[in-house]
């Protein structure tokens, strides 16, 4: 053999050959299963949370629900909502989203207080898969300026709040805000405290986007090494895309052991759900990584959400401005014009379209013909007349006959597509007869899941509010109605729930 090749050949004695071959085979045996064992990454979409920060384009109530339904259809694992700013209106929105989402975990951040956790849980509790989030700053500068607390007090706060959230909700997420700029020793202690107290998910945030992909990978590995308690929790990362490194950083974090990635279909400075998913679809199998996202629907659904978010619209909507009737004191009468009623609605903080204002005035006219309307009552009228899905059925008239010697009967007339349809039925009571008459008109029977009546205001002329919950195909749809009489409020509530069922099932 020539000399120039002899150096490249490793001569293995025959006695050692079998041993070397056995070692190689052993490595291969243990390696092969790892290749085929795909690791599923949890995708937590933050589109709705990001949208709440966009002051130049506020989304309407209906648009937010539509986005939530589209993300659920795409099979995102976690749907993250914005925190409650106006408790009244944001609670309504959160409850509506919870009832619309069937598969995804719905996550809601809590204010860092006992009352804040309770308020968040009140809004979130009806979700199929609820998650409470505790977002706690862990860098020195953030702790001092956001929490106004020194590190020891922050640790005490974590130890107090996580168990409280855990008592209400099995799924609690601890979010270490500005984690990459935190002092490592303190960060480890904070994570240990959160996991020990019951946090099932821990999120590391690179808010400033200061880390490269290699640095973030090393950071994740370092956290795992120093916090063995993480073996009992899911580690998530939220990477900033401020400098367009977000996707690369998220991928590197996943390779280092992160199990959940925060993304957004639309969200400035956030890892793109579409881009990250497309990359994993193309290269994920090489690294044994996958997601549950429906890739065949990815482009279409992301396009739909982008069109909703980026469409031109009024800068304010009812569910962003909030309504505080206590801060307004006025009384309207039947002599007030549509323009005056619209001005009062705007005074409450609502910014409605002409069509929505027309619906409000129609409802207002029914009430004002019998009594004066206060700011609080007008608030209820707006919520029930304007902030709803498009109506398929409209109430034209109702006649109800009751007495102590006759069977209650109801004659209801509804309009659909401009055509009037009537139904006449007897029942056990006036409300039961009315509901049966509506069922006769629509040709559908829906299980009545709940029915409640309450007074909106006090006194002999109090306006009544009715709540009706109908069950269709395993889902519950809520409807509200208002009137100066109980039967009228109940009929309107039933029709309101009915319209939601028709709207959603037609969409499907």
Question: What tags apply to this protein structure?
Answer:
single chain, 508 residues, alpha/beta, TIM Barrel, Double Stranded RNA Binding Domain, 2 domains, 3-stranded antiparallel β-sheet, 18 strands, 47% helix
Quick overview of this protein structure:
The protein is α/β, with parallel strands linked by helices. 47% of the residues lie in helices and 20% in strands. It folds into two domains: 39-310, Aldolase class I (TIM Barrel, Alpha-Beta Barrel); 330-507, Double Stranded RNA Binding Domain (2-Layer Sandwich).
Descriptive account of the structure:
By secondary structure, this protein is α/β, with parallel strands linked by helices. It has 2 domains: 39-310, Alpha-Beta Barrel (TIM Barrel); 330-507, Double Stranded RNA Binding Domain (2-Layer Sandwich). It is 47% helix and 20% strand. It contains 19 helices and 18 strands. The chain has helices at residues 3-6, 14-36, 47-52, 61-74, 87-100, 114-124, 140-147, 151-168, 184-196, 213-226, 246-255, 273-283, 295-310, 318-321, 338-347, 354-368, 375-385, 430-442, 486-507, and strands spanning 39-40, 42-45, 78-80, 105-109, 130-137, 172-177, 201-206, 234-239, 260-263, 289-290, 331-332, 373-374, 393-401, 409-416, 419-426, 447-455, 464-472, 475-483. The strands form 5 sheets. An 8-stranded parallel β-barrel has the order 2-3-4-5-6-7-8-9, surrounded by 6 helices. Strands 13-14-15 form a 3-stranded antiparallel sheet. Helix 9 links the parallel strand 6 (172-177) and strand 7. Helix 16 (354-368) packs across helix 17 (375-385). The longest helix is centred in the first third of the chain and has 23 residues, at 14-36. The chain starts with a helix and ends with a helix. The relative contact order is 0.08. Residues 1-36 and 313-328 have low confidence and may be disordered.
